[in-house]
Amino acid sequence: KVKQACLFCRDSEIPSNSEGGLYVCMNTFLAFGREHVERHFRKTGQSVYMHLKRHVREKVRGASGGALPKRRNSKIFLDLDTDDDLNSDDYEYEDEAKLVIFPDHYEIALPNIEELPALVTIACDAVLSSKSPYRKQDPDTWENELPVSKYASNLTQLDNGVRIPPSGWKCARCDLRENLWLNLTDGSILCGKWFFDSAGGNGHALEHYRDMGYPLAVKLGTITPDGADVYSFQEEEPVLDPHLAKHLAHFGIDMLHMHGTENGLRDNDIKPRVSEWEVIQESGTKLKPMYGPGYTGLKNLGNSCYLSSVMQAIFSIPEFQRAYVGNLPRIFDYSPLDPTQDFNTQMTKLGHGLLSGQYSKPPVKSEIIEQVMKEEHKPQQNGISPRMFKAFVSKSHPEFSSNRQQDAQEFFLHLVNLVERNRIGSENPSDVFRFLVEERIQCCQTRKVRYTERVDYLMQLPVAMEAATNKDELIAYELTRREAEANRRPLPELVRAKIPFSACLQAFSEPENVDDFWSSALQAKSAGVKTSRFASFPEYLVVQIKKFTFGLDWVPKKFDVSIDMPDLLDINHLRARGLQPGEEELPDISPPIVIPDDSKDRLMNQLIDPSDIDESSVMQLAEMGFPLEACRKAVYFTGNMGAEVAFNWIIVHMEEPDFAEPLTMPGYGGAASAGASVFGATGLDNQPPEEIVAIITSMGFQRSQAVQALRATNHNLERALDWIFSHPEFEEDSDFVIEMENNANANIISEAKPEGPRVKDGSGMYELFAFISHMGTSTMSGHYVCHIKKEGRWVIYNDHKVCASERPPKDLGYMYFYRRIPS
């Protein structure tokens, strides 16, 4: 599986840099550095490891003093990265491999055909010749990895006059506005399925295929000049469509034109864009490299700068530092048998690499003198590689698992989702971002109002272009630019729109129209307006500037603006006030649920078997912050119609006194608990089979641990073992678990009042400590850079390069990170 790097640390990513080398378990084929192989041996009892080491030697000099002519080095047989610090003209590598038997560290040199059994020799050869599993993340290996659809060449497209607008899409069957797919035969826009990453949908695109047989669909929002996400329902997999440009043009989407901007020139041909790159990266300024703890960069794996920028900002926050790096011994000791598949282990490994300072050391004086003598001018900062981390956090995600550029804001929310789902006991560092938004919706005809609350993790500010303070300069620049383009003369120096931050904040707080508003007072659709306020203020406020949009011709556009973002931010005036005197609430009547004809049969008998509750929909709702039992009831009483319909049920019933009580149904003997055990239900009705408990206790674990782990994993033995290793805090509560087991009324625990989403409310005064900037015309291209204020000065993190910032471009950022000022 993994032969290139230790699963717990960075010391052995390049074995020539590590005195201990790399130890590969001959049972699991996972790799460990010298410091961590003992931990794996103690945990598993596995005693046979292959020890890999790369030696670096200075090349033998010829009589004239130069190195001997290059020739193929047969002593290099490991698929490992070489050390970029060493000049290949002066140094050569030699790989060494041997078997090591623990605990006595008995060594057997390899190859050793005479002494080793044939099967062992074959296994050793397989390990030595295996390729790194992360090579697929390299930029050059992504081409042609998807099959070409057999339906692409002769795809039938109906001449029905459908034209797709560049925005404002919604599902034709359920009005959903995310995870939408355009059928390439008839132009229907329908939703996909719900996924683990909160990409919502009710499966209507698939239902449409089953009804009509139209095989290909493209995901809206992924269309770029280089292609798009295309799925074949008939072939049941993502595919390539070589004729995608033609198929999209049939519906008015000019994909090929998206290669250029409005004037037909490519990004790198436009002088203003070059200027943006120079300003944000502080090019032309001699920047001083920074070294030590917290000043370690991340290597770019090929369009992975969005990930690097977000992670640098995340691990500058003390709560994340404490949750992962502060708990390093505990997380590593209780990691599952395969740490590559454990989020907390990989977060801890990455955080330790960034914060320890072990991988960001200044060059010693002798190395500097040697470089000057050799007239070498290469960067001293190599950074650490996030390959293993990226492989885990992006698995099963169609966008982040690709090698294309992504939106840093989308990755931030994806990361928060992963942190929420993999919390360490009761500790959840993402609590610092969570806040409640109060939404006030008013019926324009009756003037009645409804107040609701929702959870959010960032504040999205619109760009108030109409408030630009240099409109005359912009008009003059635009006229000069067009004249220069027409006469093929050099473009004038860029003039950016200067937008007051106060105007963006005002635009955020202004009322907005509600599409398809259903007034419960009129019991019909009507005009409605919505205003949003903060029901709570988070500990850390993340502000996104909404710079990206599409033109009418589907060309991606970016508002290249300068916004005077404040160092100190006061949003206390945006605090929610709730129902005001004189306001009359809209009646508590739910809108009629529109059920597609092909789905009505599913609601003929609303009392479905509790074991058939769609747990994926339950999880999606629970991750929004609603009580688990309420989510189960919502999915149950809406007949498994999907998370969106269940969400409507929650909004209508959330004020009821039994909102979060366990689901009870006549004829099923009380509480429905068939699926609740997945989330840690502890009643006696969830007693695990004794034979499985006996298997776990025979491994040395306490009975209380075995019972708790099996209850939390729906009696799955393998998942229960992983659960025990990743939940050490339950070992301390063993007496409590045993007492519950013997308590006939154990299920009274669930009668406690439900808690809402955990928020850390406080003052609305903040100070800026980090921001992420984007260069390029859209989130699907370009480059990201992060600036962080540390120890009283700004520092720029540009992939592997970490330097003191001289002119931080705070006015050109895309995402801003503010911390609360204690009142």
CATH superfamily of the largest domain: Cysteine proteinases
* Major sheet attributes: 8 strands, mixed
How many individual β-strands? 30
Instruction: Report how far apart the termini are.
Output: 51 Å
Helix content: 25-40%
Q: Give the DSSP E fraction (strand runs of 2 or more residues).
A: 15-25%
Query: What is the domain tally?
Result: 6
Query: What is the name of the CATH architecture of the largest domain?
Result: Alpha-Beta Complex
Q: How many H/I helical runs?
A: 21
Write the layout of secondary structure elements.
Layout: E1 22-25, E2 31-33, H1 34-44, E3 48-58, E4 91-101, E5 106-109, H2 118-129, E6 180-183, E7 189-191, H3 204-212, E8 216-219, E9 230-232, E10 237-239, H4 244-249, H5 271-280, H6 305-314, H7 318-325, H8 328-333, H9 343-355, H10 365-374, H11 387-393, H12 408-421, E11 435-443, E12 449-456, E13 459-462, H13 471-486, E14 497-499, H14 501-509, E15 512-513, E16 518-519, E17 524-525, E18 528-534, E19 540-546, E20 548-550, E21 556-558, E22 561-563, E23 568-570, H15 615-622, H16 628-637, H17 643-653, E24 664-665, E25 670-671, H18 690-697, H19 703-712, H20 717-726, H21 734-741, E26 765-775, E27 783-790, E28 793-798, E29 801-804, E30 813-820
Parallel strand pairs: 13-19, 14-22
Antiparallel strand pairs: 1-2, 1-3, 3-4, 4-5, 6-7, 6-8, 8-9, 9-10, 11-12, 11-18, 15-18, 16-17, 19-30, 20-21, 23-26, 24-25, 26-27, 26-30, 27-28, 28-29
Helix pairs in contact: 6-12, 9-11, 15-16, 16-17, 18-19, 19-20, 19-21
Catalytic activity: Thiol-dependent hydrolysis of ester, thioester, amide, peptide and isopeptide bonds formed by the C-terminal Gly of ubiquitin (a 76-residue protein attached to proteins as an intracellular targeting signal)
GO molecular function: BAT3 complex binding; cysteine-type deubiquitinase activity; cysteine-type endopeptidase activity; K48-linked deubiquitinase activity; proteasome binding; protein-folding chaperone binding; ubiquitin binding; ubiquitin protein ligase binding
Family: Belongs to the peptidase C19 family.
